[in-house]
Design brief:
The protein is α/β, with parallel strands linked by helices. The chain has ten helices and 13 strands. The two termini are 38 Å apart. GO terms for molecular function: 4 iron, 4 sulfur cluster binding; catalytic activity; metal ion binding.
Length: 315
Amino acid sequence: MKKECTLKYKTLFGPVPSRRLGISLGVDLMRHKTCSLDCVYCECGATTRLTLKRSEYVSVDRVKEELADYLSRNKKIDHITFSGSGEPTLNEGIGDVIRFLKSDYPQYKVALLTNSTLFGRLDVRRQVKDADVVMASLDAATEALFKRVNRPHPELDLHGMINGISAFRKMYHGRLLMEIFIVQGSNDSAEELTALKRILGCIRADGVLLNTLDRPGTETWVAPVGANRLKDISDFLEGAEIVRYKAGPTEITARHDDLMARLVSTVRRRPYTARDVSQIIGLDVETVQPVLDQLVASNQLVTRQMDRGCFYTVS
């Protein structure tokens, strides 16, 4: 028999069907939206606190308590992933949480999604080096484009960030994947891609992931590149993997009496379609859709139309 939930999770979200990590339990170490970048494409919305200051933005003790409670229920997950509402490495307790997972729950793989901006710091590199998978973003090869697409904190510079990634690669023995978010008309030019390819060759990551706009971004002018162009870029970068949405049931269940709260919590961090939500929650679309409609009618959620369908997010 499964244990009854005694906590209302504030730092965990999902599990969600990740396009890269299978069924992924998210760990959010940040307050919305605290980050070192304000990327034009970010699906979490505009950065409200642009900072490089490391602090315990979310209580590490609370995170460990929630993880212990959740994992005691034997949920079927593939990875425990640090991501969410901001840059995870800004939380100075991230190393403590990784050590906790590695010592108490070694059966689970740990992943980190990072914007790479803090790899210039030795303390950050040391704290995250025990993660099994690190997905590090690099969208620009020139300072001008870095400022246009990623809109960094004023004290950040692209050269220092790239040096930090390279330094991390040298000390990291897990799987390092570089992720490039392609924005139409920005970093999809031959010149920019050639420069990116040269940098990637120096970093020597275990793989390169190509992404483009799938959910509503921060700025309305941001547009995805087409599938054919994305394939051309993949070929140019010699086998970069194109990120695709993971479909299929997740075998994750939710109680109907807290379904509304679960739906709001799910879309608070990033927008999803009704189909996405149904796969995350483990219920069919016919069950989820009326609840989403009710949340829209009560002004708790709003909708945005994209190529892939109608996305729901918090109002």
